[in-house]
Task: inverse folding
């Protein structure tokens, strides 16, 4: 380790905050805040479009602001990082992707119990009035894939001519497109299991940077931050060619086994493991690898993070595997240590300080892939009252677990109106402690430099139980009296794990109260899932050769 570089770390090791561009971007104001960064020994910044932005995203006016910042960074030995989206999650390019190509909208698989009628009457009525009933189902519930009769521990597709037990219940599967969202400028989110989505996104959101700043790539512009690209946040992810891909990979029809994805019935362990393995690999091939290769081809580092906050496969298939396709893997370390805080934290923000698994899962990917740096987006939602002491303690905790690049969340370009409650703390000169902040900047810069040297050595190998989680994660079944945990649950209330998960789904997207309930329910579901992790299932799955 070079003592001179340790004492005076260069820009690449100094902290680089998210710079929230949340107003009308004006050269004078940009210049003032760039000066503010320089004086506080901030090494760089992520130019991050954020709610409240008045300058049109990716417009000529937008790129004029980018140019101002790139030129300043060049003159003052700083780093200007690209943030690939308008707000987050990455993948919709501010709504331009699905505005121009509506067929690239995300899709998810929904399972629901149908009306509780006598099974024989249902089958006869379904054959007689199937066209009208399917038309209604398509309109209300999406594109129907298949229907099944469920009896005890068995099931069969409705098309079968086998006799029907009078106690059977009807289970319907459909594919629903994503709904338009105000968060995404009135458009739905995109299908990240479709490689055409990624190609379109790159063309809209990244190629304009290449055309303007290619000579700065790998220098003053070191890389691209991609933020929480995800599959779905409710039900199961789906894409149009998934059944055919499943058939080519495993030699059988996924549609024949759909109940096993939601109910503990049949050979559900093998089916779920196959499904999630395929989803993980498709997410990598359709989104992660093209993004990584585009950056690699143009001399840029791909960094950012997925949805690693919760122990579930629903957002990216696997928590660890997709991050092999990042030059600098990262995490999103939200909130603060509430037990040590003066005021209660905003209930919308999950409690993550102390979640060792969340950090080690990502740093382990970096060690296995020989990545020298691991980023942490830190402090988001920690509150205006967060002290130097708390900032230092949280940063040190993350660094002790393998982090070595501090990305503070958030520097607010403007505090006008609602902007001041956009997940503060805020790192800027509107803070009374800002004149002293360079002390923390240089401290974390020295830590980043020191912890980027040498080679990590591990004496213990810990097997990550993602495969068991694929098998044991309960999924919610919609419909009156629905049970989602076991076949027996088909006629009873959902079990604890499925109930918690269902509560999370129901709370999603219903405002602050809904998000708060969703976080609480997801936390409960995570605790239940951890109890469900089964070595026996893992061994059975492995022995089945899947």
Result:
């Amino acid at each position: 380790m070079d003592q001179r570089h340790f004492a005076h770390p260069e820009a690449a090791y100094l902290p680089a905050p998210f710079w929230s561009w949340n107003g009308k971007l004006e050269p004078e104001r940009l210049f003032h805040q760039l000066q503010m960064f320089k004086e506080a020994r901030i090494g760089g910044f992520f130019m991050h479009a954020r709610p409240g932005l008045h300058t049109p995203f990716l417009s000529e006016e937008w790129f004029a602001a980018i140019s101002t910042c790139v030129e300043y960074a060049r003159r003052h030995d700083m780093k200007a990082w690209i943030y690939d989206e308008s707000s987050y999650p990455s993948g919709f390019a501010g709504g331009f992707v699905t505005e121009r190509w509506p067929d690239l909208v995300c899709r998810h698989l929904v399972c629901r119990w149908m009306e509780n009628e006598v099974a024989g009457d249902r089958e006869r009525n379904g054959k007689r009035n199937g066209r009208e009933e399917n038309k209604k189902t398509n309109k209300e519930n999406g594109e129907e894939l298949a229907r099944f009769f469920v009896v005890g521990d068995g099931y069969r597709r409705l098309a079968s001519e086998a006799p029907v037990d009078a106690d059977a219940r009807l289970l319907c599967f459909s594919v629903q497109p994503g709904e338009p969202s105000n968060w995404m400028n009135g458009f739905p989110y995109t299908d990240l299991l479709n490689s055409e989505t990624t190609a379109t996104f790159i063309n809209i959101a990244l190629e304009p940077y290449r055309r303007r700043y290619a000579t700065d790539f790998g220098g003053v512009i070191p890389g691209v931050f991609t933020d929480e690209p995800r599959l779905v946040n409710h039900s199961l992810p789906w894409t149009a060619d998934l059944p055919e891909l499943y058939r080519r990979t495993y030699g059988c029809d996924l549609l024949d086994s759909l109940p096993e994805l939601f109910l503990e019935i049949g050979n559900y362990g093998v089916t779920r493991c196959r499904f999630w393995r395929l989803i993980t690999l498709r997410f990598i091939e359709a989104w992660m690898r093209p993004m990584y290769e585009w950056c690699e081809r143009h001399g840029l580092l791909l960094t950012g993070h997925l949805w690693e906050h919760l122990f579930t496969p629903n957002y990216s298939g696997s928590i660890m595997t997709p991050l092999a396709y990042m030059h600098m893997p990262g995490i999103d370390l939200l909130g603060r240590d509430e037990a040590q805080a003066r005021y209660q934290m905003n209930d919308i923000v999950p409690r993550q300080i102390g979640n060792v698994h969340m950090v080690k899962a990502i740093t382990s990917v970096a060690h296995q892939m020989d990545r020298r740096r691991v980023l942490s987006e830190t402090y988001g939602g920690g509150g205006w009252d967060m002290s130097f002491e708390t900032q230092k303690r949280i940063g040190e905790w993350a660094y002790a677990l393998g982090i070595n690049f501090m990305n503070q969340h958030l520097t607010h370009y403007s505090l006008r109106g609602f902007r001041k409650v956009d997940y503060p703390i805020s790192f800027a000169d509107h803070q009374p402690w800002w004149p002293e902040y360079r002390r923390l900047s240089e401290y974390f810069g020295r830590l980043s430099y020191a912890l980027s040297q040498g080679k990590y050595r591990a004496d213990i190998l810990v097997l990550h139980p993602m495969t068991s989680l694929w098998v044991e994660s309960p999924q919610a079944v919609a419909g009156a009296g629905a049970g989602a945990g076991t076949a027996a649950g088909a006629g009873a209330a959902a079990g604890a794990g499925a109930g918690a998960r269902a509560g999370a789904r129901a709370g999603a997207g219903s405002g602050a109260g809904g998000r708060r309930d969703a976080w609480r329910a997801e936390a409960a579901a995570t605790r239940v899932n951890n109890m469900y992790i089964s070595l026996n299932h893992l061994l059975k799955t492995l022995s089945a050769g899947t």
Remarks:
- The first helix runs from residue 3 to 7.
- Residues 116-120, 122-139, 338-343, 480-543 have pLDDT under 50 and may be disordered.
